[in-house]
Design a protein that fits this description.
This protein is of the alpha/beta class and 155 residues long. Helices cover 23% and strands 24% of the residues. The protein is elongated and about 65 Å long. About 11% of the residues have low confidence.
Length: 155
């Protein structure tokens, strides 16, 4: 009886509280999952396969570095390895106005020079550096959640 009474008192003490939402997630994806069916456009690009030197986005195979957002794909991203990353290489990524950037550095995680990433720090954009396979998996999860994510991938 004391436990039930205490719990009821606890619930009553919460009755004056309200919930305030600071940010509402973009809608339209509640309960959806990645489909194996082909779509008709670029509404939701996702990674299907990765192996060293090539990546499959939707049903298209690429053998060049790519920058990918849910509605945008840029082929031929310049850096050949993480240490080659220059501040100018981030310009097309920043133009997409992401909330999170995933930088895939090939088969192994390699960190770019901190000075090359200064624009991301200045813009206060979250980013993660990881191997390309992990970046692909993470991108698919985040885009399925409706996040504004960009994956910049060195193959």
């Amino acid at each position: 009886m004391l436990i039930g009474h205490s719990f009821g008192g606890f619930l009553a003490s919460l009755s004056h509280l309200s919930i305030q939402v600071q940010r509402v997630a973009g809608g339209g994806r509640f309960g959806e999952r990645l489909s194996k069916e082909l779509g008709g456009g670029l509404e939701f690009k996702d990674f299907r396969a990765y192996s060293p030197g090539e990546i499959r986005v939707g049903e298209t195979l690429y053998r060049t570095n790519v920058v990918l957002a849910a509605r945008t794909l840029i082929e031929g991203w310049r850096p050949s390895q993480a240490e080659d990353l220059q501040p100018a290489d981030l310009d097309p990524i920043l133009a997409l106005q992401p909330e999170v950037i995933l930088i895939g550095t090939g088969m192994r995680q390699q960190f770019p020079d901190r000075a090359a990433l200064a624009a991301l720090y200045a813009a206060r954009i979250g980013f993660e550096v990881m191997d390309t396979r992990a970046a692909c998996r993470t991108y698919n999860v985040l885009v399925a959640e409706g996040r504004e994510v960009v994956a910049a991938l060195i193959l």
